[in-house]
Specification:
By secondary structure, the chain is an alpha/beta fold. It has 20 helices and 13 strands. The chain has four domains: 83 residues, Arginyl tRNA synthetase N-terminal domain (Gyrase A, domain 2, 2-Layer Sandwich), CATH 3.30.1360.70; 214 residues, Isoleucyl-tRNA Synthetase, Domain 1 (Orthogonal Bundle); 152 residues, Rossmann fold; 94 residues, no CATH class. The strands form four sheets. It has a four-stranded antiparallel β-sheet with strand order 1-2-4-3. Strands 6-5-10-11 form a four-stranded parallel β-sheet, with helices on both faces. A three-stranded antiparallel β-sheet has the order 7-8-9. A hairpin with a 5-residue loop joins β8 and β9. It is globular, with a radius of gyration of 28 Å. Bound molecules: arginine. Arginine binds next to α11 and β10. Keywords: Aminoacyl-tRNA synthetase, ATP-binding, Cytoplasm, Ligase, Nucleotide-binding, Protein biosynthesis. It comes from Halosaccharopolyspora lacisalsi.
Length: 585
């Protein structure tokens, strides 16, 4: 059973709100503008923000609020500063009690704020018969972390892997494979280290060249597309085989990355095929889809092109075929209508922003997307190489993700071995894997999502700076302190005086839930990274200023409680980023 500890920030905000309502009933419900402060525990700017509406001067309103605040056991002291800031200090006992409540709660006191929401998160979505590239790494890692955070906050999360498993390109590939039974591409026929999807990717390029060079092959390929679309059994069997082999390669990467996606989450483009006719009929009946030179389009009312003409969303191509736009009209209708989603997230790169803006607009006009449903495109920037250009191999090709992960793990191996030469070989291997994978994920998650970021493995695996390895190490170090102390079950004595470094750490620990709700509101995992980094640094300052193991009781237990709560929060937060927290490093 969770205690659902309201963070001190929230409790202070409530108290200031009550004071506002008491002093100026007409301003009840106004934002109390409370935040953490360097001058005291918290600061409220309410007097400045509200003076005008209250027809008074900020210092006067500040004074009235101070008097009204002076009643609650929650507050020790209110000081006015500047033109009307309220600097609020809490009694030490209140802060210790707050920690105590978090300490005994498996949820660390974080409430399930998003309960009642059903969130569909569309992420990863690589293309069948194509090697996954670094862009897919970003959507996979960001989407997975959002799935974890929102799930922890109580939302019912449905993961959707919108695999690119349909399209005319498969006609050509199937035809080529049929005509070349001698080529190996199934995972069990390949050398270890080669995946089926990279074999298929290469075969696809060979097939493409044949298509361009040989008109007869091109004709046979076109007939294959017709066979695929009309459900010819042997063509469908071949296509299924290609999809299954590709998915297996994708899941090898997912397993290595430790993401939540399973094959149950796969719902590729082809799964919407049966819905497309119906979607198109509905859009036509509502007068939204209109003819344009034989094609069927929805003309945007929001987006115009170069010569002020509305940009079209392609509902049905002139040849009668359906494409990417139509499928996404079907995903949004299906997810709202059949899956009863209240929140829809599409995690794809920033270049698809226009696509989703137009899909959402059409869905709104069609009446599917109503005000009680939130639809958001969650865009992210490009992965750059250390030269500042889009990340590519030296020869300009796509970087194979497995190679990239191997590389990160190898470098992590070196830095971990340098740091701790006593680790037994098997343990070193295990920790290097956790550190290397964690480093790649953390580097991605900690950069501001919409910005481009530089993929620099050496920096990622560093033990210093805002890196995954730094946080894993901070956690491992605290665990080692706790082990040295015998890892006792401690309880807090709220009567001891808080040292400044203890106080800073305690207030930071208390802000964990707030950091998570911010991730949910803004869909930005880097807020959680920043929080964990600040927490680790506050711990370092605390540990430098306050002896733990050699302290007298009850100080010792209180400080061990701070250690334990910090280690648990770091581990929990890393887990929500999808990063493991080894016990030692
Ligand atoms: N397969 C697409 C790509 O590789 C991403 C699909 C994203 N999801 C969606 N519902 N459109 O770019």
């Amino acid at each position: 059973m969770s205690n659902q500890v309201l963070p001190l920030l929230g409790r202070i905000a409530d108290t200031v709100s009550r004071a506002i309502a008491e002093v100026r009933p007409e301003l009840a419900g106004s934002d109390p503008v409370v935040r953490r402060s360097d001058h005291a525990d918290f600061q409220s700017n309410a007097a400045l923000a509200l003076a005008k509406s209250a027809r008074t001067k900020p210092p006067e309103l500040a004074e009235a609020l101070t008097t009204a605040l002076d009643v609650d056991g929650l507050i020790a002291r209110v000081e006015r500063s500047g033109p009307g800031f309220l600097n609020i200090t809490l009694p030490d006992r209140v802060i210790w009690n707050q920690l105590s409540a978090r300490l005994t709660d498996p949820r660390l006191g974080v409430s399930a704020r998003d309960e009642g929401q059903r969130v569909v998160i569309d992420y990863s979505a690589p293309n069948v018969a194509k090697e996954m590239h670094v862009g897919h790494l970003r959507t996979t890692i960001i989407g997975d972390s959002l799935a974890r955070v929102l799930g922890f906050l109580g939302a019912d999360v449905i993961r959707r892997n919108h695999l690119g498993d349909w399209g005319t390109q498969f006609g050509m590939l199937i035809q080529y494979l049929d005509e070349h039974p001698e080529v190996a591409w199934h995972h069990d026929e390949l050398d270890p280290g080669t995946s089926a999807v990279s074999a298929l990717d290469e075969l696809y390029r060979t097939a493409r060249a044949a298509f361009e060079a040989d008109p007869e092959f091109a004709d046979r390929s076109r007939q294959r597309v017709v066979a695929l679309q009309s459900g010819d059994p042997s063509t469908i069997a071949r296509w299924k085989d290609i999809v299954a082999e590709s998915e297996k390669s994708f899941h090898d990467i997912y397993d290595r990355l430790g993401v939540l996606l399973t094959s149950d989450d796969s719902a590729g483009e082809s799964t919407y095929n049966d819905l497309l006719d119906d979607v198109v009929t509905e859009l036509t009946d509502r007068g939204l889809a209109v003819d344009s030179d034989g094609a069927l389009v929805v003309l945007s009312e929001e987006v115009t092109g170069p010569d002020d003409t509305p940009v079209p969303l392609m509902v049905r191509k002139r040849d009668g075929g359906y494409g990417y736009d139509t499928t996404d009209l079907a995903t949004i209708r299906h997810r709202i209508r059949d899956l009863a989603a209240t929140r829809l997230l599409y995690v794809t790169d920033a270049r698809q922003s226009l696509h989703f803006q137009m899909i959402f607009e059409a869905a709104r006009r069609a009446g599917w997307l109503t005000d009680d449903v939130e639809a958001a495109h969650v865009p992210y920037g490009t992965v750059l190489g250390t030269d500042g250009r889009p990340f590519k191999t030296r020869s300009g090709g796509t970087v194979r993700l497995m190679d990239l992960l191997d590389d990160a793990v190898a470098r992590a191996h070196t830095v971990v071995a340098d740091k701790n030469s006593e680790l037994p070989a098997a343990e070193l291997d295990r920790i290097a894997e956790q550190a290397g994978i964690g480093a790649v994920k953390y580097a991605d998650l900690s950069s501001s999502r919409v910005k481009d970021y530089v993929f620099d493995i050496d920096r990622m695996v560093s033990f210093t700076g805002n890196t995954g390895v730094y946080l894993q190490y901070a956690h491992a170090r605290i665990r080692s302190i706790l082990r040295k102390a015998g890892d006792p079950d401690v309880s807090i004595d709220p009567g001891t005086e808080l040292q400044p470094a203890e106080r800073a750490l305690a207030l930071e620990l208390d802000a964990y839930g707030t950091a998570l709700t911010e991730v949910s509101d803004n869909l930005e995992p880097h807020k959680l990274c920043g929080y964990l980094y600040d927490l680790a640094r506050d711990f370092t300052s605390f540990y430098e200023a306050c002896p733990v193991i050699n302290a007298e009781e009850p100080l010792r237990d209180n400080r061990l409680a701070l250690c334990r709560l910090t280690a648990r929060t770091l581990r929990h937060g890393l887990d929500l980023l999808g990063i493991s927290a080894p016990e030692s490093m």
